[in-house]
Amino acid sequence: MSSDPEEDYIPWIQQFCEAFGHEYFVPVAQDFIEDDFNLTGLQLQVPYYREALYTILDYQVETAEDNGGHTSNGGSGSKGKNELPNKALLAHSAELLYGLIHARYIISKPGLTAMASKFEKNEFGPCPRFYCDGMHLIPVGSTDIPGQETVRLYCPCCNDIYLPLSSRYLNIDGAFFGTTFPGLLVKMFPEIENQCRIRINKVNQDDFGLKLFGFKVNELSASGPRMKWLRMHPQKIDQKKEYDTCELKIPSDEENEDDEDVSSAVMESGLNDDDDKTMASEGN
Fold first, then answer.
1. What's the first-to-final CA gap in the chain, in angstroms?
2. Which domains are seen in the chain, by residue range?
3. pTM for this structure?
4. Which of 2, 22, 117, 271 has the most Cβ atoms closer than 10 angstroms to its Cβ?
């Protein structure tokens, strides 16, 4: 018995997500793609945008090969034929468009839920840093502009960025995940921060350090642990207050100068006060 062609047909999105090296991607809901609001501005970044969109949605798209294999290399063909993309260019445009849509989808509620499921299953891999104790990584892009840099992996425990261990992921554009997704995922799922807090409190990082004949290497040394302060977390109440103050801005020199002026003014007023004054003399 011959199987039905419609039953054997695999949608384009499913083929893309199941392709080798595309394990970081999640299937984008078709309703999300069909909403023009979610695609605002993408037509300026993707060549043959309309044809690429139809390809993603599994519509029939006419290519240059369907018209005799002639592209826009000159000749007496009509303008419509000359503007048709070939199959290779159409496939590239469809992948680019889907990647940019994917970056917007994973910061929506259903997209965050789908990516959180992958994060929970450790499909993005563990952090290679020893003190992070296998903390699950999150894909991130250093920029939202496609074609600039490949995907990186962010560790919410040490706040550092790593390259994927397998070379199969080194050709994935970082813009397909964007710069917003990791921070939004951590804030939407507080249990991620709890996991990081457990790992931080479990290990005393002062127990290990570079030593020479039993003496620890100073942090100011050229070979010292100069990046250690980046992974320090506030423990005391005053440290947490300082962290909250400096989280969104850097204290300016003017604020420090104002604090010094206020303290000096208080000291001067204290010196000028006469200890022998009474309430009666103050009234005069």
1. 115
2. 12-64+87-199 (2.20.25.20)
3. 0.71
4. 22
